[in-house]
Amino acid sequence: TPGRTLFPYTTLFRSVSQSRYIFPTSVRSTRSQVRRDIIRMTHAVQSGHPGGSLGCVEYLVSLYFEEMNYDVNFSMDGVGEDLFFLSNGHISPVLYSVMARAGIFPVEELNSFRKLNSRLQGHPATAEHLEGVRIASGSLGQGLSVALGAALAKKLNGDSRIIYSLHGDGEMQEGQIWEALIFGAHKKVDNIIMAIDCNNAQIDGKVTDVMNLGDLESKLTAFGWEVLKADGNNLDHVLKTLKKAKELVGKGKPISILLQTQMGFGVDFMVGNYKWHGVAPNDEQCQNAYIVTGK
What we know:
Layout: E1 13-15, E2 20-22, H1 27-45, H2 50-55, H3 57-67, E3 83-86, H4 92-101, H5 143-156, E4 163-168, H6 175-186, E5 192-198, H7 207-211, H8 216-222, E6 226-231, H9 235-248, E7 255-260, H10 283-293
Parallel strand pairs: 3-4, 4-5, 5-7, 6-7
Antiparallel strand pairs: 1-2
Helix pairs in contact: 1-3, 1-4, 1-10, 3-4, 3-9, 5-6
């Protein structure tokens, strides 16, 4: 379609400050930049959720810079595009950074994160009219229902593109998720790829201590979903698993990916510590983290 710039993201990277397009150095270097963005954004306002955001960098970068086909000129309908829905909206820092670095909205706007009248609120919201955001999220458990509805709409409209969603493992404690899982399998919604961030961490502690999910792989299989597993902090493995998931699209079953991640990954003093779920780094921690992510 004239005027539409569709990715996969092996093409161009938009530099807002220079108002031109440049080739990205690599997906790998983008990971480091996104982690620095997350640290700076949460430090600047002394609030937000850095831990889960850092752990999901590889997955979001893989989607927006390699696997998804989408238009940087945002439209809410997303006809002919792959769509992404973030269900665990508290990890908005990673989503905002990735979308900005992909050219969906100006990078400079990251400086307004969680500030009064900003479009970049702590949890993404459609009321803010931020490009790239199609649902208000953060009320855990709701994103899969929305994603399945969007996937069904694409099937009804003869649109062959894929719906992606991301959820936290703590979010799997919500009942609405399991209703949606049943629905997805029953309706054979086979154009959706649902990922779960399995970092075994939520705000009150380890998921296994707060409310153990047991064998999540077996549960999803029993509910009629295809299940893949990936080392969520290994970029190559994430990309390989996403490609395998796309090969399963259209074969009668919804698809899920269990991403084995670590909260705070990429910043040594945050790794694996649930206390960084919703705590921002102080000045010294910010400086130390910036050095680590820049290596």
